[in-house]
């Protein structure tokens, strides 16, 4: 009876031993596989990092600043294409941002008379300031329409500092209003009269400046007038005088504003001395 029990337990021990051996072999296989793939991934990472650096060697800085396009020799199947493309975009953004920031304050100082910049103003700002343009010839007297007094100034400069336009237009020497409201309107004219020695032109001369409004009415309406009689110095080679006036007026959409003077031939069209402007008050 004892012999029979021992013989029956022997197969069970053999099966347990085989199962244990199978589990051990499986564990060894998993461990070896894990170590193998870990080493392979590490090598792939090192290779990829080296390829990234290799993609950047031999590059010219000027090439990196150019926009990346497929026509420039970078193909989608090129392993370096994605790296170079992203690098191009990043470098261009940084360089352009720094360039705009540096030149915002320097371009006006370096080239104040050669660069014309269009400034941006908030959408709600309605204003204009136009200045005399000494380089623009004034129209002859017989070209003016005589439905107002004086001679109309047309040689205004509007798109270079200190001039500007914001939601106001200028045409034929007239400011065009695009929104109804109460506006402060102003103008200054600078008179410069030269004398010929030995003549009697040094007598008092009447200087007149007038600001008109053009509406649907057939004739322009006079808004302001300033007149002075000035006696020029006998010792001066030329006489100088300026007239300024301003006031608040109700203007409607498409109304126009312009300035006339008594003698346009003695007007000095210096941008800091002769100007006209308007801005919306309410």
TrEMBL record:
Q: Where does Zn(2+) bind?
A: 231
Keyword Lyase recorded: no
> Topology versus the membrane, per the UniProt entry?
Single-pass type II membrane protein
Key words of the record: Apoptosis, Cell membrane, Cytokine, Membrane, Metal-binding, Phosphoprotein, Secreted, Signal-anchor, Transmembrane, Transmembrane helix, Zinc
What InterPro entries would the database entry show? TNF_CS, TNF_dom, TNF_ligand_10/11, Tumour_necrosis_fac-like_dom
Residues of the THD domain: 126-281
As for subcellular location, the record says: Cell membrane; Secreted
Q: Tell me, what is one Gene Ontology molecular-function annotation carried by this entry?
A: cytokine activity
One biological process term from GO is:
positive regulation of canonical NF-kappaB signal transduction
Question: Which GO cellular component terms, listed alphabetically, does the Swiss-Prot or TrEMBL entry include?
Answer: extracellular space; plasma membrane
Q: Does the keyword Glycosyltransferase apply?
A: no
Primary site of residence: membrane
> What's the stated role of this polypeptide?
Cytokine that binds to TNFRSF10A/TRAILR1, TNFRSF10B/TRAILR2, TNFRSF10C/TRAILR3, TNFRSF10D/TRAILR4 and possibly also to TNFRSF11B/OPG. Induces apoptosis. Its activity may be modulated by binding to the decoy receptors TNFRSF10C/TRAILR3, TNFRSF10D/TRAILR4 and TNFRSF11B/OPG that cannot induce apoptosis.
Protein family according to the UniProt entry: Belongs to the tumor necrosis factor family.
Binding partners and assembly: Homotrimer. One TNFSF10 homotrimer interacts with three TNFSF10A mononers. One TNFSF10 homotrimer interacts with three TNFSF10B mononers.
Entry protein name: Tumor necrosis factor ligand superfamily member 10
Cite the source lineage: Eukaryota, Metazoa, Chordata, Craniata, Vertebrata
Gene assigned in the entry = tnfsf10.L
């Amino acid at each position: 009876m004892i012999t029979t029990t021992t013989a029956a337990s022997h197969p069970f021990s053999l099966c347990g031993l085989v199962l244990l051996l199978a589990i051990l072999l499986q564990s060894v296989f998993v461990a070896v596989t894990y170590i193998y793939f870990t080493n392979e991934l590490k090598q792939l990472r090192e290779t990829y990092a080296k390829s990234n650096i290799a993609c950047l060697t031999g590059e010219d800085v000027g090439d990196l600043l150019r926009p990346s396009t497929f026509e420039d020799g970078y193909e989608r199947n090129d392993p370096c294409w994605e790296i170079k493309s992203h690098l191009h975009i990043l470098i261009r953004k940084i360089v352009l941002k720094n360039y705009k920031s540096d030149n915002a304050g320097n371009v006006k100082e370096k080239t104040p008379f050669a660069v014309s910049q269009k400034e941006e103003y908030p959408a709600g700002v309605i204003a204009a300031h136009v200045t005399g343009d000494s380089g623009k010839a004034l129209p002859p007297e017989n070209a003016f329409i005589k439905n107002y007094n004086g001679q109309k100034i047309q040689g205004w400069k509007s798109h270079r500092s200190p001039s500007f336009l914001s939601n106001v237009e200028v045409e034929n020497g007239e400011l065009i209003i695009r929104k109804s409201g109460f506006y402060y309107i102003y103008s200054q004219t600078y008179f410069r009269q030269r004398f010929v020695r030995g003549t009697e032109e040094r007598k008092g001369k009447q200087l007149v400046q007038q600001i008109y409004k053009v509406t649907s009415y057939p004739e322009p309406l006079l808004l302001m007038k300033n007149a002075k009689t000035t006696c020029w110095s006998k010792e001066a080679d030329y006489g100088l005088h300026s007239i300024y006036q301003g006031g608040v007026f109700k203007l409607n959409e498409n109304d126009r504003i312009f300035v006339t003077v008594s003698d346009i031939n003695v007007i000095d069209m210096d941008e800091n001395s002769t100007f006209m402007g308007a801005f919306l008050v309410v």
